[in-house]
Design brief:
Helices cover about 40% and strands about 30% of the residues. By secondary structure, the chain is α+β, with helices and mostly antiparallel strands. The protein has 4 domains: about 45 residues, no CATH class; about 55 residues; about 60 residues; about 170 residues, Exo-inulinase, domain 1 (Jelly Rolls). The strands form 3 sheets. Strands 3, 4, 6, 11, 12, 13 and 15 form a 7-stranded antiparallel beta sheet that branches. The longest helix is centred in the N-terminal third of the chain and has 68 residues. About 10% of the residues have low confidence.
Length: about 375
């Protein structure tokens, strides 16, 4: 056994190097020196010693992985750059038309600016010429002042003319409206008897319907339409249209209920065509009926023609009243039996079932409050 001079491990004689630490063994060193002397002598004697059969292991080849990675990265960068370059070139081509149009517009603007500059130069030259001629400058200035004054006068005149025209037009509209209202008032007053018209001059016109309709139903109840409520002293005028197809011995009633407190609690003025009228008081328990005044005789003022009409005017004032047919005075009325405030309604009644479902028209209804 041989002791390693380096690590003191025991080694066999056939080891040239210590298997523990790798140090060269002493016998291996002496053999190397002997072989060196032998080889040197052999070489001096001209003897060629054959090469040793042992070949050292070939060095490992370097790995190409990193080279491949670098090449791939470079290739990707090139591809991306190419795509971006193509996109940029397309954008440039797309904007080439806009750039050309912009350049054309700039060129046109420059030409316009040049012409404008030329006009400015010409104006400056004219101004300098004017300044160099004081007499001409003063004359031009005076003309400008005169022109401005003339224009101001014309503007003022035009404004005054327009204002006057507007005022004239407004006055015309006011006049026309007033004329229309006056004409309407005159047409309404024409419905009243002449001796009643002074009563409504200072009276209050009541906002009431001027046109109403009612369908006749043959039963025990009056067909009536409401006009106003809670009024005592008034002037009322209303036109009743005659029914169509007036028959022999045919008659109908048209009337006014006023100072009403309930369904059967009022004064009733009605005209029975062709020759009867009546003022009645209805009220009290069971609808007590009392005839205040009546008249049985032909009423010459009535229009009995088919398609004709009759206008009744009723004046109610305190304990007294009066009524007219078609502008003709018929009678004074005693209203003392019912001196309270109440409603007003119009009614119609026929004597036959033949008139069932027939429509009656009340028109030109006008009411004035005398209180």
């Amino acid at each position: 056994m041989i002791i390693c001079p380096n690590c003191k491990s025991q080694c066999t004689p056939d080891h040239n190097f210590c298997p523990a630490c790798g140090a060269k063994m002493p016998q291996a060193a002496s053999q190397t020196q002997q072989q060196g002397t032998y080889y040197t002598g052999a070489q001096q004697a001209g003897y060629s010693y054959p090469q040793a059969a042992y070949q050292p292991p070939a060095p490992k080849k370097k790995s190409n992985v990193w080279l491949i990675v670098v090449i791939a990265v470079v290739a990707v960068i090139c591809i991306v750059s190419t795509i971006l370059l193509i996109s940029y070139i397309r954008k440039i081509k797309g904007k080439s038309t806009d750039l050309l149009q912009t350049a054309t517009a700039i060129h046109s603007a420059l030409e316009t600016d040049i012409h404008g500059q030329e006009n400015i130069w010409q104006t400056e030259e004219a101004l300098l010429t004017t300044i160099n001629d004081p007499e001409r400058t003063a004359t031009a200035f005076a003309q400008e002042i005169e022109s401005a004054q003339t224009q101001a006068v014309r503007t003022q005149e035009a404004w005054e003319t327009q204002t006057q025209a507007t005022q004239t037009q407004e006055a015309y509209y006011i006049e026309q409206t007033a004329s229309a209202q006056a004409a309407q008032e005159q047409s309404v007053l024409a419905l009243l008897p002449e001796d009643v018209r002074p009563l409504v001059e200072n009276a209050t016109k009541v906002d009431a319907p001027t046109y109403l309709e009612e369908v006749y139903i043959h039963n025990d109840y009056l067909e009536n339409v409401w006009v106003a409520e809670d009024i005592k002293n008034f002037v009322l005028t209303v036109t009743f249209d005659n029914p169509i197809d007036v028959r022999v011995n045919d008659y109908w009633e048209m009337g006014i209920l006023f100072r009403s407190k309930a369904a059967n609690d009022q004064l009733r003025l009605f005209v029975k065509v062709p020759k009867y009228w009546e003022l009645s008081y209805v009220g009290g328990s069971g609808g007590y009926w009392s005839t205040v005044r009546s008249w049985t005789a032909t009423i010459d003022a009535l229009d009995l023609s088919e398609g004709g009409s009759n206008t009744i005017t009723l004046v109610s004032k305190g304990h007294k009243g009066s009524f007219y047919i078609n502008g003709v005075f018929i009678s004074d009325l005693d209203l003392s039996s019912r001196a309270n405030y109440g409603g007003i309604s119009l009614w119609i009644e026929y004597n036959t079932m033949v008139r069932n479902n027939e429509k009656t028209i009340f028109r030109d209804i006008h009411l004035w409050d005398l209180d």
